[in-house]
Amino acid sequence: MKTINHSIGGQWTTGNSGLFQKIYNPATGEQTAQLVLGEAGEVDAAVCAALAAFPSWSNTPAAKRARVMFALREVMNARRDEIAQTISAEHGKTHDDALGEVTRALEVVEYASGISTHLQGDFSRDVGPGIDSCAERQALGVVAGITPFNFPFMVPLWMIPMAIACGNTFVLKPSERDPSSANLIVELFQQAGLPDGVLNVVHGGKPAVDAILDHPGICAVSFVGSTPIAEYVYTRGCAAGKRVQALGGAKNHMIIMPDADLDQAADALMGAGFGSAGERCMAISVAVPIGEETADRLVEKLATQVTAMKIGPSTDAEAEMGPIISLEAKERISACIAKAKAEGAKVVVDGRGLVMQGYEDGFWLGGTLLDGVTKDMSVYKTEIFGPVLSVLRAKDYPEAVALINAHEYGNGTAIFTRDGDAARDFAKHIQVGMVGINVPIPVPVGTHSFGGWKRSSFGAHGIYGPEAVHFYTRLKTVTSRWPTGIRAGAQFTFPNME
Ligand code: NAD
Q: Residue 490's pLDDT is what?
């Protein structure tokens, strides 16, 4: 049986904890590997390796650090298929979807390749008599990333390229459910010429996370995962004096206005609701049609499409949706559907009980469509993170906006309409961080930054893009007086330019 090891200081190691966890192929339900589970000792070893690598790496000119990113881009492009297969083997998503994940990760690498420009400082001559001022951004030191299962390749790469391009060294604690992608990232960086110790990976669960949050050698933590853990990581990390950004869960609504192109809206809902089996923080999980007529027509179209959706393993090129990440998640999602029915939702299409021929032990669920969902139902209030699309009917646009603004999450949202006024009003007033106008999954490109509002994100900074430069560096301002010959005498007033 394959063992998935930590990578510390450029060496693969099983560490000393003696703890292991089973890794599965969700399509077959078979164990494919065992994962080493690190604890405080492994985290400490990784931090020591990252601390040792920091002086040399942070003093490497930014243009040379950027060269590693340029090389990484080439390596990633050359190994795209292999990367996608590694993702799908443990996550279950379709091959095309996994390729999409690689492409979005590449955007961050490409942005990080321009780090010399992103780190350019400001200079002001003669801010006082013979006095100049310059502002620069310097690396923090060792930073850590803690990542979720649903994008095992892309989310670590939302963090690592920008963090290390800024001159930091890094400790990654990936999801313990699909960890092979993290080790592949290490391999890719090694191939791109990254020095040992700049990137380290420690596998594990809560004990490894707690060790990261408490370790005095770590300056900053980037977290992506569910809201309860994001809040925990933010609170404990901040209490330990660290800079923390913690991105959490979501409940993303899509408003369908009566004037929208309903075929286009239904197609968008299929992809955004059921792509990657709904296991995306930007998945649309609530469709909000305006008016009964729009709702009836939309539900009819969706019912046909959900029933016809092609479900299969990632090796099936025709598959539109793969299995669920784990048996536990499948059972949790099934229980959510049962509860929705008990609370009065109409189960228009029921994905429970799907048997995939030849893959009977896999973690399969079909797509589920619920109608008549109300805001008091638990299926509306909680994040399901599965292939379940709820339809909540609103009488008019203001009611739909009020509904979205009242929800505790504020990650993504969309409106489908031909009405420019409504679209413009929506963009301005909706209390959500990422907004789509006739775009169902408005994940910002790598040159912008990603981040939700309300309980979908804790901390001041978005992830990747320009916000990452601010998160992974700190500002230094140098005020200097030349030539030395100027003598103003002792001055007891507060310094000013006179
Ligand atoms: P999760 O919160 O269970 O796990 C995320 C990370 O936290 C993992 O590395 C895990 O090992 C660690 N962790 C889990 N339980 C912990 C505990 N009790 N104490 C300390 N650490 C713990 O999330 P997941 O199930 O892997 O991923 C799905 C969630 O991530 C969803 O809620 C989804 O919305 C969210 N997500 C958010 C974004 C975003 O950008 N906002 C992106 C992707 C996923």
A: 84
Number of the ligand 1 atom closest to the C-alpha atom of 148? 26
Please list the ranges in the chain whose pLDDT falls under 50: none
Q: Distance (Å, rounded) from C-alpha 181 to C-alpha 463? A: 20
In this structure, what are the phi and psi dihedrals at residue 234, rounded to the nearest 5 degrees? -65, -50
Measured CA distances, 75 to 30, 185, 188, 399, 447 (Å):
30, 10, 6, 50, 21
- The pLDDT tens digits of the residues spanning 27-68 come to 999 999 999 999 999 999 999 999 999 999 999 999 999 999
Residue 144 CA to residue 405 CA, distance in Å, equals 32
End-to-end CA distance of the chain: 75
Q: Is 427 helix (H, G, I), strand (E, B) or coil?
A: helix
CA of 426 to the centre of ligand 1 (A): 29
* 48 catalytic per annotation: no
Q: Is the Cα dihedral 407, 410, 411, 413 positive or negative?
A: positive
Any ligand 1 atom below 6 A from CB of 415: no
Ligand 1 pocket test, candidate residues 42, 150, 453, most atoms within 8 A of CB: 150
CATH for 2-248+456-478 is: 3.40.605.10
Amino acid 332: pLDDT: 98
Q: How far is the CA of 186 from the centre of ligand 1 (A)?
A: 21
Contact 211, 39 (CB under 8 A): yes
CB-ligand 1 contact for 456 (6 Å cutoff):
yes
What is the Cβ-side half-sphere exposure of residue 171, based on CA atoms within 13 angstroms?
Answer: 36
The domain spans of the chain are: 2-248+456-478, 252-437
Reading the block at residue 454, the tokens are 């309300």
- Domain at 252-437, CATH class: alpha beta
How far is C-alpha 265 from the geometric centre of its chain's CA atoms?
25
Question: From its phi and psi, is residue 441 left (phi > 0), alpha (psi between -120 and 50) or beta?
Answer: beta
Q: What pLDDT is recorded for position 486? A: 67
The answer to whether 109 and 79 are in contact (CB under 8 A) is no
CA distance 116 to 119: 5
What is the structure's pLDDT at 243?
98
Residue whose CB lies within 8 A of the most ligand 1 atoms, among 177, 212, 221, 224, for a mutation test: 224
